[in-house]
Amino acid sequence: MATDKLTMRNELVTKSGGRGHVRIEGVAKTFPVRDGEDVTVLTEVSLELRPGELVSLLGPSGCGKSTLLEIVAGLQAPTRGRVTVDGVPVTKPGPDRSVVFQHYALFPWLTATQNVEFPLRLAGVDRGIRESKARDALKTVGLAEVGSRYASQLSGGMQQRVALARALVCEPAVLLMDEPFSGADAITRDILQEELHDLHTRLRNTVLFVTHSVDEALHLSDRVVVLGTRPGKIVKEITLDRAALGAMEPADRERTLGALKSEVWELLKSIISDAGTYQAR
């Protein structure tokens, strides 16, 4: 079963077409500080996300992962460089990109369906169409039966699924996820990771996923991008051949992933203990 899923995912990514091609070109971000020197959070970050690819950003706190994601979302402007999605420069938020944040940010006085349809309502979509799309989105994340329940009546895992459905309802080419499962308990987090894995296999959105978890990054990603800090820059990229991993015997797959995990952990520990040692490459 695991082999079939991984092979299918590899084929779907290959066939996903042109939507969701993200280019991050020489992006730097500096914040002014009152009564002090400006702080450079990111410097000369260049990264390409191919259509249908799931790429994780991994690194210590303060390395600029969330800042980079917000620049791709159009929520912040880079100080230098640019981001394009399907060749169009990103200058503001747009329907081609949706964001799932760490906190659910649902309206507790609205039902699950009303929360999901909210961006369509802001866009002026007719009520019947937006309700239909919201129901379909909830079905996609496995919550078809909870549409009439208020957000405040749902468990944390369900609320995060509603937030994911809301992000998907506009059919974005790019899904931006900022530590979406970090607030969940261990069991719920594992379930949400599996659901995202299966969802990405079916929908083939391009996904940029911010995480602090090495296990999560290696489990979900086609590619893991490790950021150093002071200022944030790419220090390593790890490509995971999902088809090859799926074809391995379970013990061999565990050994391969275990070796990668050890490599990444050693890199992260070095970054934290000796910031600035690693050069971008």
Compose a concise summary of this entry.
The chain has 281 residues and is an alpha/beta fold.
Question: How does this model look, in words?
Answer:
- This protein has nine helices and ten strands.
- Residues 1-17 and 276-281 have low confidence and may be disordered.
- It has two domains: 2-96 and 174-193 and 205-273, Rossmann fold (3-Layer(aba) Sandwich); 107-171.
- 41% of the residues lie in helices and 22% in strands.
- It is globular.
- Strand 7, helix 6 (186-203) and strand 8 form a beta-alpha-beta unit.
- By secondary structure, the chain is an alpha/beta fold.
- The protein has a six-stranded mixed sheet, sandwiched between helices. The chain has a four-stranded antiparallel sheet with strand order 2-1-4-5, covered by helices on one side.
